[in-house]
Specification:
- The protein is an alpha/beta fold and about 300 residues long.
- It has two domains: about 120 residues, no CATH class; about 150 residues, P-loop containing nucleotide triphosphate hydrolases (Rossmann fold, 3-Layer(aba) Sandwich), CATH 3.40.50.300.
- Helix content is about 35%, strand content about 20%.
- The strands form two sheets. Strands 5-4-6-7-3-8-9-10-11 form a nine-stranded mixed beta sheet, sandwiched between helices. It has a two-stranded antiparallel sheet with strand order 1-2.
- A hairpin with a 2-residue loop joins strand 10 and strand 11.
- It binds adenosine-5'-triphosphate and magnesium ion (MG).
- The site of magnesium ion (MG) has 4 residues, from helix 4.
């Protein structure tokens, strides 16, 4: 038995077929799913098992490059977060609408930005980031701190950041979304983020008005041929969401939650829905690092209560 397999066994990790091949399809921005998972206070709450659908993260450099090309050929849109892509057959479906929901500080904005950043830098797919939070400059500083060179991407016309107040975005959608479409056309954007969608939804007092707006937005996005990732602030359980219509309108829904190992609160990701995609039923740990979010698709989380 190799050293690595022996070490994996000691930690309760079953080594996958490619686990000895050290690689990263891309540096930074969550590209290395083989990265060592940070030490935990207790391994008891975390079970692991061999996961056969290990995609980009566990391949050698040449295989990984081939896999990335294949992924794009078959119409997947990689997030560039290797461990996350491994869970969803290499990425989102092209031109699909996806929602990532989670509680405060679970990394929704970071993942959304990695999706845009990696798209522009690694896959030659420019992106539009629609920021609906009030403090855009603060958010930009956070992204710069994580090493995302926003200003360079903007100069190279690979990124447009739009910021709107809730009333503005509501009006823009109602009147056909021209300013957003113009931004998409100005850089040939293939990816679009809305962060967070709640800011639009809370604008509506009546549920049917909210639903109408969500449907109008969805039909605009589908016409614009962009792959969309919207973030959604979640309170409590995903199934009891205040905004169920967003889940029905989305082609894909990813849920970020937290669980305890001893007194440490850790993060876990689950694919709740992904049309046309074979994805594993399970919850997988992820960490927010200096390079963004890193997901561990080979380490399954077993615990009774996920928040
Ligand atoms: N370098 C880092 N290492 C570890 N954690 C980090 C790092 N940088 C940021 N974080 C964590 O990332 C979280 C913020 O991420 P992000 O803004 O994406 O969360 P969010 O889910 O969008 O939050 P909100 O719901 O408030 O918008 C914070 O909890 C912060 O502690
Ligand atoms: Mg956020």
């Amino acid at each position: 038995m190799s050293d690595m397999k022996a070490r994996g066994k000691k930690r309760g990790i079953v080594a996958g077929p490619h686990s000895q091949k050290k690689n990263s399809p891309r540096e930074g921005a969550g590209g290395d799913a083989t990265a060592k998972r940070p030490a935990s206070t207790s391994e008891r709450a975390v079970g692991t098992r061999l996961f056969n659908n290990n995609f980009l993260g566990l391949l050698g450099p040449q295989e990984a490059q081939g896999a990335v090309e294949h992924t794009q050929e078959i119409g997947r849109v990689p997030t560039g977060i290797a461990g996350l892509d491994a869970l969803i057959e290499g990425g989102f479906e092209r031109n699909s609408i996806n929602t990532i929901m989670g509680g405060p500080g679970t990394g929704k904005t970071i993942i959304a930005f990695q999706f845009i950043y990696n798209g522009a830098v690694q896959f030659n797919e420019p992106g539009v980031f629609i920021n609906l939070q009030q403090h855009c400059e603060q958010c930009r500083n956070h992204m710069r701190r994580l090493g995302f060179d926003i200003d360079k991407l903007e100069r190279e016309k690979k990124l447009v950041v739009l910021s709107y107040a809730p009333s503005e975005i509501a009006e823009i959608i109602k009147s056909g979304g021209t300013t957003i479409k113009d931004a998409i056309d100005s850089i040939g954007a293939k990816r679009l983020v809305i962060d967070p969608l709640n800011e639009l939804l809370i604008y509506y007092e009546k549920r049917y008005a909210m639903r109408t707006s969500v449907e109008e937005l969805s039909s605009l996005l589908r016409r614009w041929n962009v792959t969309t990732l919207a973030t959604l602030e979640m309170h409590g359980n995903a199934q009891d969401s205040m905004y169920p219509s967003t889940q029905f309108v989305s082609d894909g829904v990813i849920v970020l939650s937290t669980y305890y190992e001893g007194n440490i609160r850790n993060h876990a990701v689950e694919v709740l829905k992904m049309k046309g995609t074979r994805y594993p039923r399970g919850t997988y740990p992820y960490y927010i690092t200096d390079n963004g979010v890193v997901v561990f698709p080979n380490d399954k989380v077993f615990c009774e209560r996920i928040h």
